[in-house]
Structures are given as structure tokens and as C-alpha cells.
Amino acid sequence: MTKLYSLKRFWQQILGQKKEFWATTFYGMAATLLLLPIPMLIPLLIDEVLLGHPGKLTAFLSTTFGNSETWFLVLVTVILVAILRMGAFVFSNQQSFYAIKITQRISYLLRHRILHHLERVCLSEYETLKSGGVVSKTIQDVTGVSSFASAFVSSFFSSTLMLIGIAAVMLWMNWVLALLILFLNPFFLAFSKVLGKKTGELLRRQYKAYEVYNELLNETLELFIQVRASNQEKNFFALILDQSKEIENASIDYGHKAAVAQRSSGLLTNTVIDIFRALGVVVVAYSDLSVGMMIAFLFYLSALNSPVQQLMGLMISYQNTKPAIERINALLKLKQEPHYPHEKNPFENVLTTSVTLKDVSFAYQYSNEVLSHINIEAKSGQKIALIGPSGSGKSTIAQILVGLYRHKGGEICYNGVPIEQIGLPVIRENVALMLQESLFFNETIRMNLTLSKEISDEKIHEALRAAKLETFVLSLENGLESRIGKNGIRLSGGQKQRLAIARLILSNPKVVIFDEATSALDNETEHQLYETLEQFLKERTTIIIAHRTTTIKQADYIYLIEEGRVKAEGSYEELFSRGVIKEDMDLG
Ligand SMILES: Nc1ncnc2c1ncn2[C@@H]1O[C@H](COP(=O)(O)OP(=O)(O)OP(=O)(O)O)[C@@H](O)[C@H]1O
């Protein structure tokens, strides 16, 4: 099972990008160190140049440049400040570059983890998934987590260093005032945590609103033809609009309160800074702190605002990350297909294999037993048929044969090897399951046939010919490059089935299962098609699931399934003579 995502994993992913992490930390700190002396430089000139108390800065500049004129000292100081700022600008740009790389990598890794998990999700879980909701989670929630990563790598170290640096300078200037100010910082952070928790709840509601909206819109568009044919567009779109309103409400609520939270922290820090500014004036009046130093102190006090704000913002963003992680984990909790190790390959170096179900039972999640102690055998190269009334369990047999669902009891074997020793990918590579309703991409005929694999035109046409679709494809203006529309909407039911059969031929399987795959064709066309496929199916074990007895005449052996059990079995003639099946009977 995929491990759930956690903040620990988040940190590991950040620290795992060593080069980028140290580069962003280095450049962030370098930029901070360059900015740190700036608030001091110009105020020092007040004391040393205006108030006539020559000090270290003017002494250094005069001896270095051999000129102690006031205009010169001011000019050099301004140039020095500009150079420091320019240096910080260059380093900050470098820092952003590496921070963006880290952030985007975290997004990618998170999406990779979700997609990798979904790729192997078991079918019973897949049935419950709403694709719109999944899309919303892989986009919005991943963005939520990565924006915290972005805020963290770009501001945590530089803001902390700035805070420590400013604190050190202030302590040096006036330790009483500095200590008073610094003691307040933990309270600021605690305040931000409370605000973050409150906005986190609102953000959760906003995420949910987007998720439901995406689900509704997605499903309505997927089933648009059905919706329109039932004249239900108004109702469906009204539901989507309601949800759109909920997004508006939730977003206003979150957006407004998140802005209030940000401003509250700004208001708090600014008020505290104003109080300390006033205290600074009092300190100058009652101590030996110079006017220049007091101005420098006030500049540092203002400069303190930025790292404190950034750290408070980080705390709020951290709280908002939790709902995003929870929702991502809801996807990672979906159960996955069983992993069978690939120990034996019964399909290797053989034309086809036998297929056996020994005493197999099965129940879907939350439902009663659908298959009960089924025994079926298709010998190597044999053509068997499964018939039976609707809901008797025929398609379920087909699906457990390719491991789409896990059988509960008994054994399923290919050439005597249980599927647990073959591995699901190997089975699906060699056993083709053709459904009544094949699914198609809104792409060209070629893409739908080859599924983007390199296959020569000659082979494609051979398959089309066998599937009795070549004449139709050749009659199209763009031939193989013709687009077939959403899920093949531009094709008739029969054309779609023939396209699926051509795809099946190209995939060259060793065992073929037709699950009502030709039911959309009329008796005559179906008969012709099986005749054409005779050569293709001759060397392959074939299982045909059908309602119509006409479809199964060609089978070597027939099983009648009723209520999940084998009710009768034998050749067509045997079953016919026993009265189990009748000519042209439709069991559906
Ligand atoms: N994914 C599922 N989850 C739960 N129950 C299911 C699922 N698929 C099928 N069933 C149930 O299992 C039973 C057997 O269904 P199955 O599709 O295998 O029948 P069938 O013989 O192929 O029917 P038909 O000829 O109509 O296609 C039915 O009662 C059906 O409701």
C-alpha cells in the first residue's frame, strides 16, 4: 500500500533536494546579511556628520578614500547602500530560482505519488471515484501543499536569520528595549497559529465546494447526450450553478477571513512597533542613546516587521496545508489491486493456453455471493461459450479471469498455473477481454487501433479487413486519420464493435474473451464476422459470452450459468437435445 503523505515526508522531500535546498538557503542568507547593515548606515551619518561626533564609519571612509568632505561621505554611503541592495537583489533572484525548483519538484512528486497509486487502484474502489473530485484534488490540494513549500523555502531561513540579526543589532544598541521586543515574538506566532486554524477550516470548505462542482460538471458533460435526451439540462445545470454559488460563498468567506487574518497580524505588529517607537523616544530622552542611533533603532524596528510577518504568514500557511494533506491522503487510502509476483509465465513459447476455474466463488464489495463454486474449463485452443440469463454472473466470470476483481475462493489457472503465480500485467498482456461497450479515445481511428504503439499500415489494414471495417475506413475522407469523436460517437454501434475487434486482432492475444462483444451486430453480420475471425481464433482459446444461442453454435463446449452456478454444460447438440437451449433463443 502507498504510504500516506505526511509533513515528515514533506520535510524529507525538501531536504532530499540537497543542492537546491542549500543553494536557496545560502542565497537567502547572503541576501539577508547584505541587507542587515543598511538601516544603520545613513542614521550613523547623522551622528558622525551632522552632529559632529566623528566615528567609525566616517573614519573608515575618510582613510579608505582620502576625502573627508561631508558631501563625499554622504555620496559614498549612499553608493555603498545601493551596492548592498543590488547584491541582495541578485542573491534574492538566485534564491527564488532554487526555491521555485524545490516547490515544483514537491508538486511533481506529490502528483506522481497520487497518480502512481491511482494507476493500481482496485476496481471496486475505482467504481466509487468521481473523476472531477480526483482532478480537483490533484490540482488544488497539491497547489496548497506546494505553496506552503514555496513559502517555507523562500522565507523560513532568511526571515529567521533576519530576525536573529536584527535582534543582535538591537541588543547591542539597547538591550532593555530589544529584550522587551523580542519577548513578544512567541506571542505573535501563537496568535498566527490560532488564526491559521480558523482559516484552515474555511479553506477546507472551499476545497470541498470546488471538488463537488468539478464532479457535477464532469459527470454532466460525460453524460451530456443522456442528459439532453432526457430533457434534463436545466435541472443538471441548475445543480452545477448551485454549487458554483457555494464556491462563491465559500471563497468569499475564506478570502475575506484570510485577508482579515493577514491584516490582523499586520495590525498587531504595526501597533506594537508604534509603541516601541514611542518608547525609543523616551529612552533617548532618559539615556545616552544618540539621535542617530535612535533613528537606526527605529529603522531596525520597522525592518523587524517583514520577517515577523513572513513567519506569521508561514504559520497560517502551515495550518492551511493540513486540510490539503488530509484530502490527498483520502486518495492514497484507496485500496489497490493485489500484487501477484511474476513467478511463472504459462504464455511463453506457446500458441495458447487452457483456462480453468476450479471451485471459484466471488462476491462484490458489500454484496452477496455472485459466483458460487463454479467449475469451468476451456482446453487449449478450445472455443467455449457461457450463456445464461441477465445478472447470472457471466461478465463477472470474464472480469475475474483477467484479475479485474479478486476471486474469493477456488483457483483460476492458465495452463494449470494459478493467476497468483503469473502476475496481473502478464495475464492482461496475453488475455484480451472484449466488452460489449468498448471505450474509445476522442482521437483518430489509427490511435484507437494502435493505442499509440508503432504498427505498420499494412498490419492495421489486415486487422481492419478481418474485422470487416476496411471498406468503411477507406471510404472516409481522412481514412485512418479520421477522428471518431467523444467515445466514438461518430460511429455506429456495430462499427464501434468492429473497431474494437480490429484493435483486439492487433494486440495479438493468446486467449480471447468476448463478453457480448458482437451483440450490437445483426445475426447475419455477427455470423460473417466470426467466420472471418475463424483463422484468428483457431489457434487461440476463446470464451464467448452471449445471450443469443445463434452466437454460440460455433462453440465446442457450452456452460449455462444461472444464479452464479453452472446449471448445465455440454456441446451445443447435447444441450439442444436435452432441451436446455433452443434454436434462436435469446436468454437475455
Ligand atoms: N461492480 C459491481 N458491484 C456490485 N455488484 C455487481 C457489480 N457488477 C455486477 N454486479 C452484480 O453481480 C451480478 C452478476 O452480474 P453480471 O454482470 O456478472 O451478470 P451477467 O450474467 O453478465 O448479466 P448480463 O447478461 O445482463 O450482462 C448481478 O446481480 C449484478 O447486479
UniProtKB/TrEMBL annotation:
CDD domains: ABC_6TM_exporters. PROSITE patterns: ABC_TM1F, ABC_TRANSPORTER_1, ABC_TRANSPORTER_2. Gene3D superfamilies: ABC transporter type 1, transmembrane domain, P-loop containing nucleotide triphosphate hydrolases. Residues 22-320 form the ABC transmembrane type-1 domain. One of its GO terms (molecular function) is ATP binding. The chain crosses the membrane at residues 21-46, 71-91, 147-169, 175-195, 278-301. It is found in: Cell membrane. It comes from the Bacteria. Residues 355-588 form the ABC transporter domain. InterPro entries: AAA+_ATPase (IPR003593), ABC1_TM_dom (IPR011527), ABC1_TM_sf (IPR036640), ABC_transporter-like_ATP-bd (IPR003439), ABC_transporter-like_CS (IPR017871), P-loop_NTPase (IPR027417), Type_1_exporter (IPR039421). It is a multi-pass membrane protein. The keyword Oxidoreductase does not apply. SUPFAM superfamilies: ABC transporter transmembrane region, P-loop containing nucleoside triphosphate hydrolases. Keywords: ATP-binding, Membrane, Nucleotide-binding, Transmembrane, Transmembrane helix. PANTHER family: ATP-BINDING CASSETTE SUB-FAMILY B, ATP-BINDING_PERMEASE FUSION ABC TRANSPORTER-RELATED. This is ABC transporter ATP-binding protein.
